[in-house]
Amino acid sequence: MHNFVEAIERSIEHIDMIVSDKDKVREEAIRITRDIIRIASNVVTHTLNEDFDLAEKNLIELRKLVKNLNTILAQHPDLAYSGLVYNAVAEYVEAELLFSFIRHKKLVSFDELSSIGVHYIPYIHGLCDLVGELKRYGLELIRKSRFEEANHIAVAIEHIYHSLRKLIEYPDALVPGLRRKMDIMRRVIEDYITFLLDMEYRDKLIKNLRRFRRYLRNPPGST
Fold first, then answer.
1. pLDDT-derived band of residue 14, with 50, 70 and 90 as boundaries?
2. Could you give phi then psi for residue 49, rounded to 5 degrees?
3. Which residues contact residue 70 at a Cβ distance below 8 angstroms, ignoring those fewer than 6 apart?
4. pTM
5. Residue 128, CA distances (Å) to 26, 123, 180, 203 in order
6. Can you give the pLDDT at residue 223?
7. How many CA atoms lie within 13 A of 134 on its CB side?
8. Domains with residue ranges and CATH for the chain
9. Mean pLDDT score, 109-122
């Protein structure tokens, strides 16, 4: 009986040490993920405002945080593959993709981000969420009558949607949340394209009316 009790106590002490260490790592991970979400939001805001120097400065800090997070979680896969981490890293991915698209007219690939430890699930989620931010940027382009660029946004978000469609064949356990995000994306894209076409039509109509008024004021042969 004595050996039985001693074995239980040793086991619990060992487990207590493991859980205590893991709890410290978890607390540090929570702190880092909060910083990631905050700075990712700054990157998105600066990028949408086309303040690329500030966006890039924040992005450099953001990459360091993601690398640091992956380093401290390297021995804790149960934490590394948790929703807490995935959500924060997805915010980073969204910021990285948005900056690369608007600033450099390209998208950072999964292979590039996986080299710093980004898992495919937050990459997919970040790519899905990118569509909403590109819509916001596109609406600002429309407001400024930059219709050619706004049309490029429409092409890009439709391509993202159709590229992701091949992944919805997999069960939700492998691509969690993708179907729901795809449904949201479809509505976002449809609303954006409808608004873009409407505003383009109005812009052309206004320009034609202005030309017609100038014609009426100064018809050929009136001088």
1. confident
2. -85, 0
3. 80, 116, 117
4. 0.88
5. 27, 9, 10, 30
6. 56
7. 36
8. 1-104 (1.20.58.2140), 119-216 (1.20.58.2140)
9. 93
Q: Is the dihedral of CA 23, 176, 136, 61 positive or negative?
A: positive
| Amino acid letter, residue 21 | D
Element housing 32 (H / E): helix 2-48
Q: Tell me how far CA of residue 165 lies from CA of 91, 122, 132, 150, 178, in angstroms.
A: 21, 17, 17, 23, 9
71/26 Cα distance (integer angstroms):
13
End-to-end CA distance of the chain: 117
DSSP string, 178-213: HHHHHHHHHHHHHHHHHHHHHHHHHHHHHHHHHHHH
Other residues' Cβ atoms within 10 Å of the Cβ of residue 33: 22
Position of tokens 């729901």? 180
Instruction: Give Cα 195 distance to the centre of its chain.
Output: 22
The number of residues in the chain equals: 223
| Vertex 81 angle, CA 91 and 97, to 5° | 25
Give the span between the Cα atoms of 158 and 24, in whole angstroms: 43
* Pairwise pLDDT comparison (50 vs 210), residue with the higher score: 50
Which token pair is 48? 């949408």
For the CA atoms of 19, 22, 24, 29, what is the dihedral angle to 10 degrees?
-150
Q: Cβ-count burial of 113 within 10 angstroms (0-12 exposed, 13-18 middle, 19+ buried)?
A: buried
